[in-house]
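hiii, so i know i said id send this last week but things got crazy w the move. better late than never?? heres the sequnce for the chain we talked about at the cafe, plus the structure i predicted for it. fair warning i was half asleep when i ran it
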Amino acid sequence: MTADQFWDIIHATAAQTQEEQLEKFRYELQQLALPELAEFMTHFALFKNAAYNWDLWVVVWLCQGGLCSDDSFSDFRSWLIASGRAFYEAALADPDSLVDTLSQIDDPTFESFGYVPGQCWRERSGSDDPPGPRVKFSPDPAGGNWLRPQLKDRSQSKMLNRSVVFREMGDEEIAAIEQTFPRTWKYCLETGKIRLRKPGTPSDNLPTPEEIARSKVDPNLAKTDFAKYVTLLAQAAREEYEKRRTKS
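okay and structure toks below
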């Protein structure tokens, strides 16, 4: 399967609602032979990985009022792919242009869209994953030339989520973001999604959702069942993000 064929399938799923698009998506994937479905899944993973980018992430984070966790950004990238090739490629070429769409919608995520290929594969093949090597996922987002290298490097951090980087940004990053993403900055400033503070003053001391999540999950679980520990952390963080989104 070529990239063109992949995007033709995505284009065929276009619909007015996410529910309708999911139905069309499942139908399109059911028409593929298993080897084609496996190739489609590889393309999906590659395009999703290609959008794992600090520049895209900060634009979404700003437009969502500072609420875009690691999980939310993953769901955003599924939404980005579901939106079609032209929109996807334009966003990667110019993340600042996303503000035109993000300013018009409340929730630019499509979590369930990303699950459909795997679900179809399991239903039809009876196995969990297609044969052959998996697409290697990079733990570090690309881009982000406006971020200090020490902020990008999370090797010494105990926090599993990279979204904490946004809370650690200083005046240097803020000034660079204003210059790099002027349309997004202008929109967020005018709508109150950005509230400027005096240069050199510390940011608020509210704990991050990830920090709150860590306080709610037994750390000893990481030694006995790490997969469950990570799952519970992610769940607790999502609950806190949703709580803050509701209040904002």
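btw The mean pLDDT is 86. thought thatd interest u
miss u guys!!
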